[in-house]
Amino acid sequence: MKSKLFGLLGCALLGLTTSIGALAQPPKVVASLLPLHSLTASVMDGVAEPQLLLPGGASPHTYSLRPSEAEHLRHAELVIWVGPELERFLERPLRNLAGDAEKMTLLALDGIPLHPIREGGLWDPHHHDDHSHEPHGHGHSDHHHDHGHGQPHDHHGDYDTHLWLSPAFARQFIDTLAERLAVLDPDNGAAYRANAAATLERIERLDASLHERLASLAELPYLVFHDAYQYFEAHYGLSPVGSVTVSPERQPSARRLSELRQRIRDTGARCVFAEPQFRPSLVTTLVEGTGAEAGVLDPLGATLEPGPDAWFELMERLADDLAACLARA
């Protein structure tokens, strides 16, 4: 009788231990894009690994979710994405598959200065300098589990969504994420905050290095493939004068290509940059006979290995590729 009693007690204790262990597991975190995944992995280093949703070589403008990626969303407890303005392919899956998960919608975070999309694709240098805006009235709503449910927010519809290309944004994101994770997983709160502090120090060092490297390029004009770099350009005082496409999903017309060639001549633009997610032949054709060089800039990190280093490598490559083409021209 005693042995049976002890056996039952042992089973009960084992079940309790298993239950407590299950509750103590770190949250399952999914990040939509490689740069966001990288910063998240840095904050979660040594605790757990977040799941990356979008492959590095794919474009969020045109992507379709695969079954394995849908499964990651189904089990997620926290989903980190920019918002429906960029990852339109996620609107319905977030509602249908990850309805109970907490959403961290970056365009809705408090205190994030946003740059309006530049009209027409032909701009004056430093057009972005004094035109960033801070959204009002929606900063806290994304803390709720059902925030947005994939629904667009009108006040963000006209803003550049490539926030991660600004070290200033990266700092705010790191701070916010560490606190959000500490609420979801208090047992590892100290680890998240310590990782965040170390990541912020690393960002400071990189930022100082990039400021020094890019200072001599500030007045050199160039064109980008699409208007994805405002946060990088504004932060480092660069001088873009236009974009090849107004929207990555639409090819420019023959008339627009003619206008762009004239723009290159009028501004003395040294480089026109393609992107690895789209056909480079368009840029190669555009620069023929203009004196400008063709280069490549990658806002997403198409060839980078996912992990805590990827965001830092992405920023360094942007600076290196920009400098290499402008120096060559």
What can you tell me about this protein's structure?
The chain folds into two domains: 29-117 and 159-205, Nitrogenase molybdenum iron protein domain (Rossmann fold); 217-327, Rossmann fold, CATH 3.40.50. Helices cover 42% and strands 9% of the residues. The protein contains ten helices and eight strands. It has helices at 2-23, 34-43, 67-75, 91-96, 167-184, 189-214, 230-236, 254-267, 281-287, 310-328; strands spanning 29-31, 51-52, 78-81, 102-105, 221-224, 239-243, 271-274, 293-296. The strands form two sheets. Strands 2-1-3-4 form a four-stranded parallel beta sheet. It has a four-stranded parallel beta sheet with strand order 6-5-7-8, sandwiched between helices.
CATH class of the largest domain: Alpha Beta
* CATH topology (fold) name of the largest domain: Rossmann fold
| Beta-strand content bin | 5-15%
Stretches with pLDDT under 50, minimum 5 residues: 8-23, 135-156
In CATH, the architecture of the largest domain is: 3-Layer(aba) Sandwich
Structural class: alpha/beta
User: Quick check: average pLDDT?
Assistant: 84
Spell the H/E element sequence: HEHEHEHEHHEHEHEHEH
Shape verdict: globular
Rg for CA atoms: 23 Å
Distance between the termini: 89 Å
CATH superfamily of the largest domain: Nitrogenase molybdenum iron protein domain
> In total, how many beta strands?
8
| Contiguous helical run count | 10
What characterizes the major β-sheet?
Answer: 4 strands, parallel
Biased composition (Basic and acidic residues): 124-156
Function: Part of the ATP-binding cassette (ABC) transport system ZnuABC involved in zinc import. Binds zinc with high affinity and specificity and delivers it to the membrane permease for translocation into the cytoplasm.
Protein name: High-affinity zinc uptake system protein ZnuA
Subcellular location: Periplasm
